[in-house]
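Translate sequence into structure tokens.
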Amino acid sequence: MTLNEFLSCDELEQLNALWRAELVAETKEEAYTYSLYKLDDFYVRVKVAVKDKSVCGFECLGDKADLLSA
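Result follows.
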């Protein structure tokens, strides 16, 4: 799946795609957990509320250079 294909999917399809992605890193704060996934040739950072485990949003990053600037 390319980044453009991922972006054209609805939220449910995007979440399903993340199930097969590789977890690269995870950071926990008091209210949120941030997980970084590698999906084919791009990365997705997912923000999840600790309280109810709801996905608050995600951010797509094109490559490793984007990771360093994010």
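Note: Strands lie at 22-28, 32-39, 42-49, 55-61.
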